[in-house]
Amino acid sequence: MEALTSLRSEIDLLDRELIRLFAKRLALVSQVGQVKHRNGLPIYAPQREQEMLQARRREAEKMGVPPDLIEDVLRRLMRESYASENRFGFKKVNPHIQKIVIVGGKGKLGGLFAHYLNASGYFVETLDIDDWKRADAILANAEAVIVSVPISVTLETIERLKPYLTENMLLADLTSVKRTPLAKMLEVHRGAVVGLHPMFGPDIAGMAKQVVVCCDGRFSERYAWLLEQIQIWGAKIYTVTADEHDHSMTYIQALRHFATFANGLHLSRQPIKLAGLLALSSPIYRLELAMIGRLFAQDAALYADIIADKPENLTVMESLQQTYKEALVFFENGDKAGFIQAFNQVKAWFGEYSEQFLKESRQLLQQANDFRHHSS
């Protein structure tokens, strides 16, 4: 026990030294954030990050330290660094923009964009449901109007803006569907129009590595500054047509949300206790439960609107139901060979991504297991 106590004391000393080194690194990152702010450089520099990680992995391997361990530690530090760099604000890309109005700016996503625009030096006003009697004053002299309201009221909100829009204004939206909002904006407004879809929720720690979808509308040169501003925040702009976006969202959002909802609904009706499932769960099942439970911690109306957005969504959900029935037949008939054949067909469809996803999920599972706590 004395030998063990001595070794643990040495480990404690090294841990405290690590904390001091982390503090020193974060202080340097703070200086980097100030330099980036002064020079208008993006928060996220993917090439620099990749080169640094590869170099540290090689150095770790030479010293007999597992490269994956070093990469895990550095990625966690970098995540903290990106959040730290946000504190210094961002360069204002377009100094000619004096006023931006966010319709729905008191909502979570609208509020997030208001925060980042303010941090970039823009004056932002919000127009919310109780403010329409002052819409004239709020929208007066605005160079950009961004709509961030629930899907169910997006089209009527855009229509309601029509009398207040001037040709020099940029009109944009942040809705998770794009075809009909973009068409409505082009209909009611003669000036610059762009459809945006942030592929993240309002609870993110920072914009670094996030994706914002851009669907071009009209006069792209007039909203190029906004896309550049978003990139300086650290996000990636991914440009697609509105039709391609909405088709992809059927699978990325509607189908996934529906399947998650159905799984949660099914579980809630079973003769089981959630605490008991968690106690017996492997890390993978705990993560699966977490992803189901995460949905039910959020706004039901939002998910109802996303799932019910268009007939294509219902068609794909019905095909999922049919696939469940077909999959069940393998086991009703004891058809193990048929199951294996279908399994291998899906495996071939995933191709090399299967191994990539296996690696990515292994890292997630290790992190989930690290946080697991067994009370005595």
Mean pLDDT: 92
Q: Could you tell me the strand content as a percent range?
A: 5-15%
Structural class: alpha/beta
Shape: globular
Could you give a short account of the major beta sheet? 7 strands, mixed
Instruction: Kindly state the number of beta strands.
Output: 7
Instruction: List unreliable stretches of 5+ residues.
Output: none
The DSSP helix count reads 15
Order of helices and strands: HHHEHEHEHEHEEHEHHHHHHH
The proportion of residues forming helix, as a percent range, comes to: 55-70%
Q: Strands of the biggest beta sheet: in what spatial order?
A: 2-1-3-4-5-6-7
Q: Kindly provide the radius of gyration, computed on alpha-carbon positions and rounded to a whole number of angstroms.
A: 25 Å
Distance between the ends: 22 Å
Written description of the protein model:
- With 376 residues, the protein is α/β, with parallel strands linked by helices.
- Helices cover 61% and strands 9% of the residues.
- The protein is built from 15 helices and seven strands.
- A seven-stranded mixed sheet has the order 2-1-3-4-5-6-7, sandwiched between helices.
- α8 links the parallel β6 and β7.
- The longest helix has 38 residues.
- The radius of gyration is 25 Å and the shape is globular.
- The model has no long low-confidence stretch (mean pLDDT 92).
